[in-house]
Design a protein that fits this description.
Layout lengths: L16 E6 L9 H15 L24 H13 L7 E3 L1 H11 L2 E4 L2 E6 L2 E7 L4 H5 L6 E5 L2 E2 L5 H8 L6 E7 L6 E6 L1 E4 L3 E2 L12 E6 L7 H10 L6 E5 L8 H9 L6 E7 L4 E5 L10 E5 L6 H11 L4 E4 L7 E7 L5 E10 L15 E2 L4 H5 L4 H20 L2
Helix pairs in contact: 1-2, 6-7, 7-8
């Protein structure tokens, strides 16, 4: 991979795939006008669409000359310029916002444990994290947040919403939630210190899992230890007839984690390709040795995004796993985090990624091999048809393999 993709991370708000890069020496301070100019140059040289959303980018170069007097002026000007791209994934973060983002990457937050994002102008819950106040309160993927503490979310940015939802441990936040087919409902949730977990091998609380089948729940790719945790879980299931990998409502995270985990199942196969603004395509392939040859079924849904789509796309296209559930989120862009000298940062969409078959899944998602719905009746009956289908498919594969060996 390119040097700029050497180190990656994710902000715990939406399923974004990030590269991190230092674009200058923090000791070399810039004037407010210089900071704005640096941001302009970065977008001009790196943004994936070299037309900058079909506009004359030069018009922004000197738009605020003699207007920017201090850092706050520069921040407003940069944010306004960035907004003209019409790309929710390309954004400017003030030093405070970037500090909070960095803290979330380290694996600990004070909040309710949900990823949020804006889609079609709506503030949505991408996924609640496992065993967090948000999940325990009953929040679900695709829930729309209409109000935060009684204030409308219309036109709100993801960063502003995250700032309002987070808060000191022990305090509460009120969310007015709109859910399809139900009356709007207010949830009052107490904030806690959220330790980010990646992997669980506990039996699902809902649905029936056959004893002969291993189950790995991968809730996010955020932690730098996610791949090693997954490898350890996989090594404990060598006696199972097959493995279910559950990445439903997994919003993504580190690209490296997706590649490492896909590599555990694939031998000398394409995992993912990235394409930049110049059409330069770079392909990441797996190594020759695999960790298991057991049958695999991957569970996905509308909350499975970014790194989750890289993993499921790699296993699907290489026919290494059967994909079950609902169509994934559809986030196929890579962002670079450019850390600026004053402590602020600029997220810039620099690449799109393609599955091994060359499929661009952005805004389309990955369609499962078997589309299986979960109805309200299923939930009330404590059933998980997707999990049951996964068990059925693995048992069928084992039966075929047993017959073939006779």
């Amino acid at each position: 991979m390119k040097q700029l993709m050497k180190k990656l991370s994710i902000f715990l708000i939406i399923s974004l795939l990030f590269c991190i890069t230092n674009i200058s020496n923090p000791a070399l301070a810039l004037t407010p006008q210089g900071l704005y100019d640096k941001a302009w140059k970065l977008i001009n040289s790196k943004y994936v669409d070299d037309t900058q959303n079909q506009q004359n980018w030069e018009r922004w170069r000197h738009k605020y000359d003699n207007v920017i007097k201090d850092d706050e002026d520069a921040y407003v000007a940069i944010a306004t310029m960035v907004d003209s791209l019409g790309d929710v994934y390309t954004k400017f973060l003030t030093p405070k916002e970037y500090k909070e983002e960095s803290e979330s990457i380290q694996g600990s937050l004070k909040g309710i444990g949900v990823q949020i994002g804006v889609r079609d102008g709506k503030l949505l819950i991408i996924a609640p994290l496992e065993d967090t106040p948000g999940e325990k309160a009953g929040l679900k993927s695709e829930d729309e947040i209409l109000e935060i503490n009684g204030v409308s979310t219309k036109g709100i940015t993801v960063e502003a919403a995250a700032d309002k939802i987070r808060g000191p441990e022990g305090t509460k936040v009120k969310l007015l939630i709109k859910r399809k087919g139900e009356a709007n409902k207010t949830y009052e949730i107490q904030r806690e210190n959220i330790e980010l977990k990646s992997v669980s091998t506990k039996k699902p609380k809902v649905g029936k899992l056959d004893d002969n089948i291993g189950y790995i729940r991968l809730s996010s790719f955020i932690s730098r230890n996610a791949a090693s945790e997954f490898q350890q879980a996989l090594s404990q299931m060598q006696d199972k007839d097959g493995i279910i990998v559950d990445i439903r409502s997994n919003p993504g995270g580190l690209l490296t984690n997706a590649i490492y985990i896909a590599d555990m199942f694939l031998s000398n196969k394409t995992i993912v390709s990235t394409v930049d603004r110049d059409g330069y395509k770079e392909t990441q392939r797996s190594m020759s040795q695999v960790s298991t040859k057991q049958p695999v079924v991957v569970l996905i849904n509308g909350g499975s995004a970014s790194a989750s789509e890289i993993l499921s796309g790699a296993l699907k296209d290489n026919k290494r796993a059967i994909i079950v559930g609902k169509k994934s989120f559809g986030k196929g862009l890579v962002q670079e985090i450019n850390k600026l000298p004053d402590g602020s940062a600029l997220h810039i969409t620099i690449q799109k990624y393609l599955t091994p078959n060359g499929t661009d899944i952005h805004k389309k998602g990955i369609t499962p091999d078997y589309v299986v719905n979960i109805t309200e009746a299923d939930i009330k009956a404590n059933k998980d048809p997707q999990l049951e289908k996964a068990c059925q498919l693995i048992n069928e594969q084992v039966g075929k393999a047993t017959t073939a060996n006779k």
